[in-house]
Amino acid sequence: MINEEERPTLVINPIRNGTVIDHITAGEALIVLRILGIVGRTGEAVSVATNVESFELSKKDVVKIENRELKAREVDRIALVAPNATINIIRDYHVIDKKGVITPNILLGVLKCPNPCCITNTNEPVLSRFEMSNKKAVCTYCDAVISSDISSHII
Amino acid sequence: MNHIISIHDLNREQIDNLLSKAEKVSTEFSGKMPLHGKILSLLFFEPSTRTRMSFESAMLRLGGSCMNLGGVEVSSMAKGETLADTIRVVSGYADAIVLRHPKVGAARLASEFSDIPVINGGDGAGQHPSQTLIDLYTIKQSMPLDHIEIGLLGDLMYGRTTHSLAYALTHYHATIHTISPKGLGLPDSIKDNLKERGAEVIEHASIDEIISELDVLYVTRIQRERFPDPAKFFDVSSSYRITPQLLTDVKDHLAVLHPLPRVDEIDPAVDLLPCARYFDQARNGVNVRMAMLMEVMQ
After folding, report:
1. Alpha carbon of B123: minimum distance to chain A alpha carbons (Å)
2. B291 phi and psi, to 5 degrees?
3. Residues A17-27: pLDDT tens digits?
4. Pick from B179, B158, B194: which is nearest to A115 by CA?
5. Is B105 in Cβ contact with A142 (below 8 Å)?
6. pLDDT by residue (tens digit) across B214-241?
7. Which of A93, A150, B114, B134 has an alpha carbon 20 to 30 Å from B205's alpha carbon atom?
8. How far is B26 from chain A (nearest CA, A)?
9. pTM score of the predicted model
């Protein structure tokens, strides 16, 4: 009989330098990886935990990426799919910065407009622009509304 | 820069101010040339009769001149030039631009690249603010705008004029009744937005059940050019028609409006009834557009 304390557990090792994205909405970790452009061939050492127990969220996902710190535009995109996420910057095994994410009111060049007739879906030199309102994203140019499955519209 | 892109950008005070200017414009500027020496560029990338000609007429009446793009096929767009570049160039030639374009949001984009005022003359299935102002102006000639019962009949899915008018009427606490062929109802996003703005939106299966309660009946054509699938157009075309018989038991002050062109949704016999206001509506285009030109160019 294995003692509770002796039971083997799967542990994700701490990282020396990089970023830990914690409190990701359960099941969204792979979308976070997509947002960050991380695929198997891109070379980063990445650890992913999905549907792990969480005190605050009951279930959560965690992503650890070695030797990478996130850009502001990447954090804006993550906020759309994981509004409760926390970003921890790790240097020499220590958390040197910890912050939450804030969904910006204006999303510039973040989402592709679902309206095929929108001017932003042409060869014009313009970025898509959405305003967030009551958890809906509204296109500034054509008033198209994205109210669900927002992650599938992330560029 | 004073652009007029969307009815959403105008609050009630600004709308009232433009309508009031339109009421006075023909007498106030009679014999005067307030826009003498100014040039209006008409960039129409889609066909238009009323909007293009009434803007032209408005500009000429104010003493200014007009410059036409000509056909798209003879412009640099045919060579692949972007709208943004066209606007940058034209804004060096004129004092204001009226733009009609098939892509939604084109006028907003144009305003971002223009050094001169841009007026949206209709962008695809999007906004057409001058038409909305004309609609409001025509209603106001018959009754106060507050608390009216208006019926929107026809293609409410692709019909931009009905969307803009419905939004504008939320400033005036109108009750909006919608009647449309199957599959051409008001999009849910617009319905939700109208309700968020406090409007009461009531759907009806048939015009007969509500006609006697209406102050305004706004009829639209089913726009063949907006249908992604032509077969669906033929399924719904000719599915409603306003006739004198339908208008026998209506309020005395009922105003029947239509942005024109009509096809067969209003029987020509209705033209003779006092409630038929659609040709006045078209005529009002000049005064309202004179007020808009004065607003952006003075």
Report:
1. 9
2. -65, -40
3. 999 999 999 99
4. B158
5. yes
6. 999 999 988 766 666 777 666 667 778 9
7. B134
8. 34
9. 0.87
